[in-house]
Design brief:
Order of helices and strands: HHHHHHHHHH
Keywords: Chaperone
Radius of gyration: 19 Å
CATH superfamily: TorD-like
CATH class: Mainly Alpha
Shape: globular
Structural class: mainly alpha
InterPro entries: DMSO/NO3_reduct_chaperone, TorD-like_sf, TorD/DmsD_chaperones
Protein name: Chaperone protein TorD
Number of helices: 10
Largest sheet: none
CATH topology: TorD-like
Distance between the termini: 19 Å
Pfam family, one: Nitrate_red_del
């Protein structure tokens, strides 16, 4: 009896560098969009050497790197206090807030739209533990979904077939969700703040997501070519 084989996953160098950085970028965005900038959070990212490498993928990342990595440690408490006030002003989900950082709000959809996102996460086998009761369409949750899917693809893809399945999920999520609403969110965000931290994050977000989709598509083409060669 012939046992069918699944082509092994080989990652070219250009995609390897992207894979090494994209998870870190998603985590930076999740951390700062999902919570107030505590001293431990700012200190951790301002001294993270891997962040410096990942930041070079976008101009927004370079802005963020210059801001966080150039601070004197003694100044960090004052910076955190200042940026915490800005986070509250921009991101607090109250009627008087400047923004509601949610897909439904940006696209004028009903609150029940969260059920759509909940089904997407459940179909991927993901259930989020939400410390602050975030909605499923909150920007931090949507970005965390991509971070989790990246981790699965990075550490659990032992074949072209499994990589392609995880690529499908991420491409669809970017096309059908994040890239549908984050451009206008970032545009309004940029106009509403002069914070180096939040401008850097916003610029990183609006630059990185289209780049990430382009790289996912390019890797798909590479995998399909490899599969055809091995067939």
């Amino acid at each position: 009896m012939t046992i069918p084989t699944v082509p092994a996953l080989v990652v070219p160098e250009v995609f390897s560098r992207w894979l090494e950085s994209r998870g870190l970028i998603y985590q930076i965005l999740v951390d700062f969009y999902g919570r107030k900038p505590s001293l431990s959070l700012v200190a951790r990212w301002s001294t993270n050497r891997q962040m410096a490498v990942a930041a070079e993928m976008t101009e927004g990342g370079r802005e963020l790197k210059r801001y966080l990595c150039s601070q004197n440690p003694s100044e960090l408490p004052m910076i955190c206090e200042k940026e915490t006030l800005e986070y509250t002003r921009l991101m607090n989900e109250r009627p008087v807030s400047l923004f509601v950082a949610r897909e439904a709000a940006e696209l004028g959809r009903e609150q029940e739209f969260c059920n759509v996102l909940s089904d997407v996460y459940a179909s991927a086998g993901i259930v989020f533990k939400k410390c602050s009761g975030e909605a499923d369409d909150h920007i931090a949750i949507e970005l965390e979904f991509m971070a989790v899917m990246h981790e699965r693809m990075l550490f659990n893809s032992f074949s072209i077939r499994s990589a392609m399945e995880l690529l499908d999920i991420q491409e669809r999520f970017l096309e059908e969700h994040l890239l549908k609403w984050t451009p206008q969110f970032c545009s309004r965000f940029n106009a509403a703040t002069d914070s180096p931290l939040y401008l850097g994050l916003s610029h990183m977000l609006e630059e990185f997501l289209p780049q990430d989709l382009q790289m996912l598509r390019a890797w798909r083409a590479s995998l399909e070519s490899s599969a055809a060669t091995m067939a």
